[in-house]
């Protein structure tokens, strides 16, 4: 009855969760549109469904935000969405709660189903770990969809602005008219740009908007609109300067949308594929134990447990690598420094800060410069002190876990020797009930004999034979007594050899050292991923410069300011150059070349050096318009090559856990144990 009630409760829980999914999906589908009526409303014939769902989500938000655990979870999602909906608290709460309900509903449903199907208590911690990681993937997926939706709405917004500008020839009126016809969130940001252009202190309002703009494309749009509204539009070779700028901006956004779509299509499922083997591990082992009982010897041995632990390490490494490959959204690098990180919280503790300050290399040392440069090149939000907090914590945890694992393995092997009736049976197929009972009786006898021998010193095989002979009241020269004594003596040697050894301490120290360096290796990989995108950012600089070069009063310093607002990879080098620009323009630009030695980027800086004193900006970059088609084709080819490289590498990394679990946890152990069984059979035949 207990099992029936548990199953009934499970299905009730699933029904509730599915209802939450229905609510969240409905609201998310309705949230981005202003269309009259929907399929769900027509199904229930209720016109106010959307408003009711929204009110329900607002109620859920207020109640859940008062719950300590849910509050932290909701704040994490809200932080990712605030930059997209900076001017609408109602929409922020609605989107946050819809994503929260949807992700929690899917996670709870999947967890309940997996636990019901597997039914292995030992598998629960690993299953929960896999579900937690997969839950993070779900959150990223829904947030990224919101960002992608904003980009697509931005294209529609710019096209509407272009249409209204052709009619009115006024930037403010065109933006206002476009904002009135567009849904959230792009419409709200367009309204904010209109407020900037009509404010008394436009420059101050523009700088304020730069801080809260959802992405770099809106910053560029606001800046171009301000320049045209301030200095006026004029006709160039390709028509209106403002319309030409809008066309180039739309082209840049379309490039980004296509790039994201391709990356999502090729890499979207790889993180799930890397995690999925965790859920398949125990069902696969259960199948092997059922049909090949000899496999139990491997799974319960030290080798089998070490293979399993390494498997989880491989899964974690694959997941982290794929996540770093998917980190292309700008929201990850915007306004995150204000959030209190756990590294920062730990570093504020006095004992931790004292230890970390002793480990962090002093500013005049080479290692300090190398690590600081690495963090900047990888666009990491970590400081050097926070990085060392990560390294020390991972080192200590890895050492403790590895040492604890060896202690646990010794205890597990002892328990296996004393209590497993099928240990080293070397059988294929399934035992009958009589055979199982005999095996259990034999194991109980061996355990009793080992308990008698454990307090004795200098235990030899002859002493074991004597003890077995006395215990069974059988002649010591009987073959059965000798075989039983040999089996017990082997178990005795195994039990007394299971203790923490010196080389295991060295392995634990080595694991700690590897963990100590792993954060640096991960940041180096992140830097490598960012370096692949350098050419893409240089191409975006070309678009910005080609737009700004058409303004007659544009200066090199202004171009650098725009490049700094738009850039991700080269932001630090440009910012340092701007800080030194007043002391000497040529020297500042030369310093930028030294800090970011990327050849296409250096060519842009060299042209800016020419434009400082010798020639106008437009003349310095006249080749951008003349070779525009060539640059476009070259950029398409580069983007396709980069995406293919990421996809190929991602597929290899994503499928490594599957290959590991099939080969090292199933095929190879089965082959090895088959060879052992064959050897035992041959020895038995030879003995006969």
Automatic annotation (TrEMBL):
Presence of the UniProt keyword Membrane in the record: yes
Entry keyword set: Membrane, Transmembrane, Transmembrane helix
Record carries keyword Transmembrane helix: yes
Domain of life from the UniProt record: Bacteria
TM spans (from-to): 6-27, 99-118, 124-143, 265-284, 304-322, 392-413, 502-523, 652-673
Listed name of the protein: Type II secretion system protein GspF domain-containing protein
Species of provenance: Paenibacillus harenae
Classification of source organism: Bacteria, Bacillati, Bacillota, Bacilli, Bacillales
């Amino acid at each position: 009855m207990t099992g029936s009630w548990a199953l009934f409760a499970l299905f009730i829980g699933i029904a509730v969760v599915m209802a939450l999914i229905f609510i969240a999906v409905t609201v998310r589908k309705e949230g981005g549109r202003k269309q009259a009526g929907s399929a769900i409303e027509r199904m229930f014939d209720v016109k106010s469904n959307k408003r009711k769902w929204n009110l329900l989500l607002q109620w859920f938000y207020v109640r859940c935000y008062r719950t300590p655990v849910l509050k932290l979870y909701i704040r994490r999602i809200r932080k990712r969405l605030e930059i997209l909906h900076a001017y609408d608290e109602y929409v922020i709460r609605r989107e946050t709660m819809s994503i929260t309900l949807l992700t929690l509903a899917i996670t709870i449903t999947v967890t309940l189903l997996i636990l019901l199907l597997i039914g292995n208590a030992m598998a629960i911690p690993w299953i929960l770990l896999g579900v937690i990681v997969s839950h993070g993937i779900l959150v990223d997926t829904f947030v990224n969809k919101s960002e992608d939706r904003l980009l697509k709405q931005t294209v529609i917004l710019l096209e509407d602005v272009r249409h209204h500008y052709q009619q009115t020839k006024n930037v403010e009126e065109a933006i206002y008219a476009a904002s009135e016809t567009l849904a959230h969130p792009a419409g709200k940001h367009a309204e904010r740009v209109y407020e900037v252009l009509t404010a008394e202190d436009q420059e101050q309002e523009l700088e304020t908007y730069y801080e809260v703009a959802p992405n770099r494309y809106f910053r560029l749009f606001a800046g171009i609109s301000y320049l045209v509204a301030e200095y006026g539009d004029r006709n160039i070779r390709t028509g209106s300067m403002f319309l030409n700028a809008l066309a180039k901006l739309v082209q840049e956004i379309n490039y980004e949308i296509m790039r994201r779509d391709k990356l999502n299509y090729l890499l979207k499922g790889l993180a799930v594929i890397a995690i999925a083997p965790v859920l398949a591990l125990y069902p696969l082992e259960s199948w092997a134990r059922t049909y090949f009982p000899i496999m139990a010897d491997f799974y319960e041995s030290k080798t089998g447990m070490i293979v399993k632990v390494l498997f989880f390490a491989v899964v974690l490494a694959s997941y982290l690598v794929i996540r770093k490959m998917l980190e292309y959204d700008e929201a990850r690098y915007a306004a995150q420094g204000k959030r209190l990180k756990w590294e920062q919280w730990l570093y504020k503790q006095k004992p931790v800060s004292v230890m970390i300050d002793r480990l962090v290399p002093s500013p005049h040392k080479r290692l300090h410069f190398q690590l600081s440069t690495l963090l900047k090149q990888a666009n990491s939000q970590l400081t050097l002190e926070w990085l060392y907090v990560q390294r020390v914590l991972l080192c200590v945890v890895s050492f403790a876990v590895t040492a604890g694992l060896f202690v646990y393995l010794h205890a597990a092997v002892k328990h296996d020797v004393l209590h497993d009736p099928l240990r080293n049976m070397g059988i294929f197929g399934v035992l009958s009930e009589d055979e199982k009972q005999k095996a259990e009786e034999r194991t109980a006898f061996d355990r009793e004999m080992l308990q008698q021998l454990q307090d004795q010193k200098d235990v030899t095989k002859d002493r074991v034979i004597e003890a077995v002979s006395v215990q069974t009241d059988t002649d010591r020269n009987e073959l059965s007594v000798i075989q039983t004594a040999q089996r017990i003596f082997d178990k005795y040697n195994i039990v007394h050899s299971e203790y923490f050894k010196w080389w295991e301490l060295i392995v634990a120290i080595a694991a700690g050292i590897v963990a100590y360096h792993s954060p640096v290796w991960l940041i180096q990989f992140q830097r490598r991923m960012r370096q692949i995108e350098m050419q893409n950012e240089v191409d975006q600089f070309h678009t910005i410069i080609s737009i700004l070069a058409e303004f007659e009063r544009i200066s090199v310093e202004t171009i650098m300011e725009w490049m700094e607002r738009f850039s991700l990879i080269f932001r630090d080098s440009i910012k340092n150059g701007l800080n030194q620009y007043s002391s000497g323009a040529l020297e500042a630009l030369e310093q930028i070349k030294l800090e970011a030695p990327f050849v296409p980027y250096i060519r842009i800086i060299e042209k800016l050096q020419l434009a400082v004193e010798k020639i106008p900006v437009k003349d310095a970059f006249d080749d951008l318009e003349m070779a525009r088609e060539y640059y476009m084709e070259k950029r398409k080819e580069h983007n396709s090559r980069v995406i293919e490289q990421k996809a190929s590498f991602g597929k290899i990394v994503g499928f490594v856990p599957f290959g590991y679990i099939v080969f090292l946890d199933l095929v190879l152990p089965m082959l090895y144990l088959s060879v052992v069984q064959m050897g035992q059979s041959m020895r038995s035949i030879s003995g006969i």
